[in-house]
């Protein structure tokens, strides 16, 4: 069974990762590539020469409707919903990698811009597989979670109803440079990032609200989130440290046992017995998690590949479920670290 697949916004890092995943997928066939201008795929990504002969076309929703059963939207915020709005109801299933359908209207317009597809916002399913697997299977529009929220939430969710809301949660997150996107900025020059690390948008980053919203929705809690992201001089990978305080009745609980029970049936969550290493998850779909409890004060350590589990391979897992395939089809298991 072959499913015709399109990627709109193929020229970015997540677009390339999607191409690499789809090339060897047994059921998905990449048949459409859209961007803002026409080109040859190998001219955008020379590594794909003699691998995939595909023209990149100026994105056109009529062409997508005619040629695709599934489309990945690897577009910036505000651009994803423009395309998704025109495609909804056409029979094309959509996995949107932008922020346009991830949060409530209030949080979206607070952090991004005015929303133009309110019906789509109501219809979209948040694509964090571990908490929404059954809903994803019946969805036509997936809001693929951001990399920081994915890594943070997977670590925090098992403990959300045990955390003392008086203290909230503090999240210290570090991402490889690819998380800043492909467009060149002063802060992403080699001389700016090499042998350096810096925080950005401390306590005001827009992913704070995405993390807080979905953490509290999962357990009907009211936990505040303080979030500080950092750029580190790596191409890919993400490490998150989350700090909180347990309610008195949980202060002596074994955190590793909680993690193992919560994720006992999850193939792509690995519970570690020591702090997480980025090299162990880079190039894979895995999320590694470790946690310790010191008299009710807890530290949760989680790691993912920001381009894969934080974007493209998570999008593929969602697409697999939407079409009734094994969730793990085409997902990368082993990275290239030594």
Automatic annotation (TrEMBL):
The keyword Amino-acid biosynthesis applies. InterPro entries: AGPR (IPR050085), AGPR_AS (IPR023013), AGPR_dimerisation_dom (IPR058924), AGPR_type-1 (IPR000706), NAD(P)-bd_dom_sf (IPR036291), Semialdehyde_DH_NAD-bd (IPR000534). Its main location: cytoplasm. It catalyses: N-acetyl-L-glutamate 5-semialdehyde + phosphate + NADP(+) = N-acetyl-L-glutamyl 5-phosphate + NADPH + H(+). CDD domains: AGPR_1_C (cd23934), AGPR_1_N (cd17895). The keyword Cell inner membrane does not apply. GO terms for biological process: L-arginine biosynthetic process. The active site is at 147. Its EC number is 1.2.1.38. Residues 4-139 form the Semialdehyde dehydrogenase NAD-binding domain. GO terms for molecular function: N-acetyl-gamma-glutamyl-phosphate reductase activity; NAD binding; NADP+ binding. Transmembrane segments: none annotated. It is found in: Cytoplasm. Pathway: Amino-acid biosynthesis; L-arginine biosynthesis; N(2)-acetyl-L-ornithine from L-glutamate: step 3/4. GO terms for cellular component: cytoplasm. It is an enzyme of class 1 (oxidoreductase). Keywords: Amino-acid biosynthesis, Arginine biosynthesis, Cytoplasm, NADP, Oxidoreductase. It comes from the Bacteria. Belongs to the NAGSA dehydrogenase family. Type 1 subfamily. Catalyzes the NADPH-dependent reduction of N-acetyl-5-glutamyl phosphate to yield N-acetyl-L-glutamate 5-semialdehyde. This is N-acetyl-gamma-glutamyl-phosphate reductase. It comes from Campylobacter hyointestinalis. The lineage of its organism: Bacteria, Pseudomonadati, Campylobacterota, Epsilonproteobacteria, Campylobacterales.
């Amino acid at each position: 069974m072959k499913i015709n697949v399109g990627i709109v916004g193929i020229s970015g890092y997540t677009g390339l990762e999607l191409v690499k995943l789809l090339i060897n997928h047994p059921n998905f066939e990449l048949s459409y590539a859209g961007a803002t201008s026409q080109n040859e795929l190998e001219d955008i990504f020379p590594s794909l020469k003699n691998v995939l002969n595909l023209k990149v076309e100026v994105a056109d929703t009529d062409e997508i409707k005619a040629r695709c059963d599934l489309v990945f939207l690897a577009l910036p915020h505000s651009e994803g919903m423009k395309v998704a709005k025109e495609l909804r109801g056409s029979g094309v299933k959509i996995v949107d990698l932008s922020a346009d359908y991830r949060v409530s209207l209030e949080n979206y317009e607070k952090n991004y811009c005015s929303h133009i597809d309110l019906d789509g916002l109501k219809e979209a399913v948040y694509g964090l597989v571990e908490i929404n697997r059954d809903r994803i299977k019946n969805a036509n529009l997936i809001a693929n979670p951001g990399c920081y929220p994915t890594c943070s939430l997977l670590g925090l969710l098992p403990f959300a109803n045990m955390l003392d809301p008086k203290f909230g949660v503090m999240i210290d997150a570090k991402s490889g440079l690819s998380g800043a996107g492909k467009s060149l900025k002063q802060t992403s020059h080699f001389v700016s990032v090499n042998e350096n690390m810096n925080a950005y948008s401390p306590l005001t980053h827009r992913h704070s609200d995405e993390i807080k919203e979905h953490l509290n929705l999962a357990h009907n809690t009211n936990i505040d989130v303080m979030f500080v992201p950092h750029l580190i001089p790596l191409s890919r990978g993400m490490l998150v440290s989350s700090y909180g305080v347990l309610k008195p009745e949980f202060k002596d609980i074994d955190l590793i046992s909680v993690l193992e029970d919560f994720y006992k049936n999850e193939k792509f969550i690995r519970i570690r017995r020591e702090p997480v290493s980025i090299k162990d998850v880079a190039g894979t779909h895995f999320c590694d998690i470790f946690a310790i409890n010191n008299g009710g004060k807890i530290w949760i350590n989680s790691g993912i590949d920001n381009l894969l589990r934080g974007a493209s391979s998570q999008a593929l897992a969602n697409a697999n479920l939407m079409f009734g395939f094994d969730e793990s089809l085409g997902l990368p298991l082993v990275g290239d670290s030594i």
